[in-house]
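Two records follow; treat each independently.
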Amino acid sequence: DRPTLAAVIFAVVFALLFNLVRRRSALASDTVIGVFSSTAVALGIFLSTMNGRSFTKFNSLLIGDILSVEPAMIGVLAGILLLVLALWLLSFNKLMLSAVHPALADSRGIQVFWQETVFSVAIAVVVTLSMTWVGLLVINSLLVLPAAAARNLAKNMFRYHLYALLAAVVAGIAGLLTSYYIGSSTGACITLYLAAWFAVTFCFRRK
């Protein structure tokens, strides 16, 4: 049930199409994300249930189980983490300027389209490789909640990234421990911790 090379290629193609559509239209990014994510999920379910086949064996992709990660895959995940960190360190300023002010970034000689494309592809690959353990139903929450909570507290971009990273790590560890001791879904536990943290930060958000 683990994602294959075909799944990664599929995700990369969708990421490229997503960035192209967002670039060529006036639609908001959230709208385009909703269109492509719902289409991808529906297409996956359609292909896996053709000819009367059952979707039961793919339930792990929806719910996930982080505790089922094999020791051999930890090295793969560590390698992916290093690649993402390298991308973040090498392209942080360009990515940030491209996101905040595309016109200014373009005037500074930054290839905005390719910066956004590389970022979208990186997210697509990470999500595809981790969906077996995290689950499609909670991946979106794990992508959104740390950043949303950090935005309530951060006064600058450095703190914004720092708070989001710390929240994700702490919630991830707490969710793993909770799931291990009470036998519940790990992805759901992590998401609930992040949701609680968002609620706390919302109460103390900057006026």
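The next record belongs to a different protein.
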Amino acid sequence: MQQNSPQLFIEISNLEIVFIVGKNNKKCEFELIYSNNIKVNDATEKEIFDFESIYNLVKEKIYLIEQKLNFTFKEVTLIIDMLDNYLINFTGFKKLNGSQLTKQNVTFIINSLKGKIDEFENNKKIIHIFNSEYLLDKKKVENLPIGLFGDFYSHELTFFLIDKNYFKNLENIFSRCNLRVKKLISKSFLNGIDLINSNYSLNTFFRVEINCKTSKLIFFDNQTLKFIQDFKFGTDLIFGDISKITKLNLNVIEKILKHPKFLKNNIKKDPLLEKEFFENNNFRKIHKKLIFDIAEARIQEFAEIVLYKNIN
């Protein structure tokens, strides 16, 4: 593929598929030329992911994109955002006895750890390997210490894994669309890297994502993805709590929470919900503070589960 040819990226989650096409412009900057997303279903469980339906959606959409751009794609980069992520941290060792650490030593450790993954997790496929930590004589070093002398070296790797059958199903979908899967990338990893790129002093942090039906905790240590935990709850619980108490339907609640008039610093000035929010329903006096209090109580519960009382 030529360097300035359009490149296809497809992001797949349990709820939607995002199609992105970009190419390098004359300044060698990546330029977005197409973007579109399709809702899949309301499923949040990987086990009921309908690969045949996904294939039909992908095949039709790729055909339309190729017609629109007058270009035939040969490969695709997949970005996956799924439940049940698997991250394993392994540490390998090498006794140096005062000798110099070589590239061959490091290669041996990495291959040994990869072999352990293949042995103990043979139903999983490695999609990312991160260098997590280097220790030379029990002292942490920032960069790979090849060429330095010491007595004992330890090297920690973080492996990001996915289910092999899941990957084979994805591969099959795109093979039937005459596309080769060029690369597989975790959306959680990309989100963390994006945060680092916009905050250069940020090295170690938690990132909490709260979506409609799911939530996710991501931990980066020294700019390395170290941990992911998924939770099967999201903003739908907040909306449900507000609906039970106020008797407003979910669509109205979503409209209220997204409206620029609904800001916490406006509560004292305009304490009651405006009539426009009730649409065809009978107007009732509902205090904005009540809605804030309900939402904050549920969000505090989320914080306790995800962060403060999380034994992981």
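Discussion point: Confidence is low (pLDDT under 50) at residues 43-48. How would you locate this feature using only the token line?
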